[in-house]
Every structure is written in structure tokens, then in C-alpha cells.
Amino acid sequence: RNRGTFGGSAVHADPASEIPAALLALDASCRVRGPEGECWVRAEEFFLGLFGTSLEPDELLMEIALPGRRERTGCAFREIARRQGDYALAGLATKLALDAEGRIQEARLAYLGVGGAPVLATSAAAVLVERGPPPRLSRTPHARLRESSNRWRTCTRRRAIAAGSWRCSRARPWR
Predict the structure, then answer these.
(1) Is 19 in contact with 66 (CB distance < 8 Å)?
(2) Measured between alpha carbons, how far is 1 from 11 in angstroms, rounded to an integer?
(3) SS3 9
(4) Which of 94, 110, 114, 92 is CA-nearest to residue 158?
(5) Average pLDDT over residues 91-104
(6) Is the pLDDT of residue 38 over 90?
């Protein structure tokens, strides 16, 4: 049952769901089977938009594979909801790998609840690898998120939530 729920959540592709964002941050791959055979699809190619994936109507998700954990690699996940157990307003899944000197060697940041699909912040990750963490929060990766407002979440509120998620993820990647 747990495997089915995990895969079902990935295929459902809810933009506020934790699993799609975690799969992006962890650089997961999805094994897809259809009438033409099987293939592997990377998570960033799997999630297309609001409740949309790259699966064709006659295809099934068979397996989700995560790369093995390397030394000096840590992950953090932070989401904000109105009440515990509610759907997330926004959140951030983070994976950081450090080199022997403690510098960021690899970074993957995946936001949830800020658009029609989970957002992999590749340019922000590249800046973290190149320059290290920003000293000021005004230059954090969430600043360039393209957001849409709705009745419950305004752009300003979602950007503030993303900033809070970034602060928490940055402070606790190794716990």
C-alpha cells in the first residue's frame, strides 16, 4: 500500500504535494511502462504542470529510483500550512552536498505550492555552488519565483512563505 500511495502521489502531480518536490530535489528517475516498452524519465521531465505528468494515457509508473546517498550530503524539507495536516501553502525541499573543505559542491532546491508544478530552482542552485549561501535574505533563491495568486494565497504571502522555508532549510540541512 505505501508504494502505491507514493507512486500515486507522484502521478497525481499536485503542485502543493510534498512527494513531487522531494523527487525533484533528490534527482529521482521514474520507470514508465507502456505498449512500446519501458523507459526511465527524470523527475524534472516527468512533472509538466498542474496535475500533469509526461505519462501517456496507456502508460503506468512502475518504479521510482533515487540516487544513492553520498558522503557529506544532507537534505531538508520545510513546508508551511495554515494548520498542521492541511495542504501546504508553500514549501522547499533542499539537497546539499559539501566538498572536503565544507563548500557547497551540489545544490538542488525544489519549491512546492508556488506554481502549477513543483519548481526546480536550477539557477539559484548554481549560484549556491558558485558563491556559497547568500549573506542577505533579500538575495535568496525565492526572489525570482514566478507565482500566481489565488483566493487563499497571494503572491506576496507565498513569497514570504518561500523565504521562511529557505531560512529554515538553510539553517537545518544536517539534522
Answers:
(1) no
(2) 15
(3) helix
(4) 114
(5) 91
(6) yes
Residue located via cell numbers 500566481: 148
Grid coordinates in use for 85? Answer: 495536516
Burial 10-29 (b: 16+ CB within 10 A, else e): bbebbbbbbbbbbbbbbbbb
Amino acid type, 2: N
* Residue where the block lists cell 483566493: 151
In this predicted structure, the answer to whether residue 68 has a pLDDT above a threshold of 80 is yes
The predicted-structure confidence for 111-147, as pLDDT tens digits, reads as follows 999 888 999 999 889 988 998 876 554 444 444 455 5
Q: Which residue has the cell 533563491?
A: 141
List the grid coordinates of 32.
Answer: 514508465
Residue 48: which of 35, 66, 30, 62 has the closest Cα? 30
167 or 35, greater pLDDT:
35
